[in-house]
Amino acid sequence: MSKNYKIAVIFLLLVNVVLAGYLYTYHAGYKSYDDLLSKHEKQTADFKVLQAENEYLKQSKEQIRGQYAALLKERGGLEQNTTGPSDPGNFYVYYVPATSGSLEPYEELARGAGFDEYVSAFNVVFAVPLSEGIPVVFTQCGFENAYFDQNTKGIVFCYELVELFTTMSAFYEDETLRADYITANMFFALNHEIAHAMIDIYDLPVVGMEEDAADQLATLIGTSKAEYNFHAAINYRILDSLGRNPDYFGDHPLNEERYYNLLCLTYGSDPAIHYDIVYDEYLPATRAAGCQGEFEQVEKSWDELLSPYKKVK
Ligand SMILES: [Zn+2]
Q1: In terms of residue numbers, what domain contains 276?
Q2: Which of 32, 81, 88, 270 has CA atoms 20 to 30 A from the CA of 122?
Q3: How far apart are the C-alpha atoms of 225 and 221, rounded to whole Å?
Q4: Which residues contact 156 (CB under 8 A, 6 or more apart)?
Q5: How far is the CA of 305 from the centre of ligand 1 (A)?
Q6: Which of 38, 28, 47, 62 is nearest to 134 (CA)?
Q7: Within its chain, how far is the Cα of 81 from the centroid?
Q8: What's 11-52 look like in SS3?
Q9: pLDDT by residue (tens digit) across 249-305?
Q10: Is the separation of the CB atoms in 90 and 58 below 8 Å?
Q11: Per residue in 55-94, pLDDT tens?
Q12: Is residue 298 situated within a structural domain?
């Protein structure tokens, strides 16, 4: 055996050892991914149960729609959209009882926030082209998050996220402000996920990052109660100050960016009313100067994108 040949054999053996080590690590790393997958399968099964709930809701849909359409007409002279977008389903809220006693207070907070009514009103304005509907499932997750699941076409809202908002609300001394802060952030998070759901179910084009688009729609919806947007902005500022930022390579904007974007659109929706956002130096004047323009652009874009799916004009 020549010396060169021996060296080549030793080299190949070494490569094999390194490769085996790498594959082992790779596989071990994905063990947790398998866990996630099985958890996801369980959630999928849960959703099937939830979708049965939607059947009941569908039966009362005409009745609910009639009530809200009458209410909306009375308030703003809204007309039914005569083009009739396909609308066999509903957004609907479902609360899974928390299994951990420590999360029960947060389940109570979620149940008391008025999401059922809110989502019912949403169904009057927007079509849901999926007959199974879009469940909004409040549940214990084991982690802090709210997300739209593209596979099950459902929104999951974790009680742990409500807990996080509650912990962060300690930023305020005033009890009413704390309660508003928690409610505001729950609504912002829900609206953000509804935006993801709409982008998916309507197959909307998105120019730029979807996370920015979802924040923009959530902020637009929130301008009807601007102090909620303010609380949501503050939430991102606190997260940043706690060093809880997403990775630079992630798909979410940095928390400080979300803070300024939220304030900019809120201020831009009506600078005369929200002048204090700039006056009190939450938003620098250099950014504020363009915010009305930013708001008008975002509002026009979302109006045009959602218009075919609106049931009332
Ligand atoms: Zn998102």
Answers
A1: 38-309
A2: 270
A3: 8
A4: 43, 137, 139, 141, 145, 146, 147, 148, 149
A5: 18
A6: 47
A7: 27
A8: HHHHHHHHHHHHHHHHHHHCHHHHHHHHHHHHHHHHHHHHHH
A9: 888 999 999 999 999 999 999 999 999 999 999 999 999 999 999 999 999 999 999
A10: yes
A11: 555 555 555 555 555 655 665 554 555 556 788 889 999 9
A12: yes
Cα 214 to averaged position of ligand 1 atoms, centre (Å): 6
Evaluate whether residue 123 is within a structural domain. yes
155-178 residue pLDDT tens: 999 999 999 999 999 989 999 999
Nearest-angstrom CA–CA distance, 89 and 265: 31
Q: Are 257 and 243 in contact (CB under 8 A)?
A: no
- d(Cα 267, Cα 150) in Å, to the nearest integer? 33
How does DSSP assign 273-307, residue by residue? TSHHHHHTTSS-HHHHTTHHHHHHHHHHHHHHHHG
Distance CA 206, CA 308 (A): 16
Cα 1 to ligand 1 centroid, rounded to whole Å: 62
Q: How many domains does the chain have?
A: 1
Tell me the pairing of strands 154-158 and 146-149.
antiparallel
The ipTM (two decimal places) reads 0.99
Cα-to-centroid distance, 292 and ligand 1 (Å): 24
Q: Give me ligand 1 centre to Cα 187, in Å.
A: 14
Radius of gyration of the chain from Cα atoms? Answer: 24
Between the CA of 147 and the centroid of ligand 1 the distance, in Å, is 7
Query: By C-alpha distance, which of 125, 129, 207, 118 is closest to 157?
Result: 118
Burial class (CB in 10 A: 0-12, 13-18, 19+), 20: exposed
Ligand 1 centroid distance, CA of 268 (Å): 22
Q: How many CB atoms within 10 Å of residue 177?
A: 15
- Classify residue 144: in a domain, yes or no: yes
Is 21 inside a domain boundary? no
Expressed in angstroms and rounded, the spacing between residue 33 Cα and the centre of ligand 1 is 21
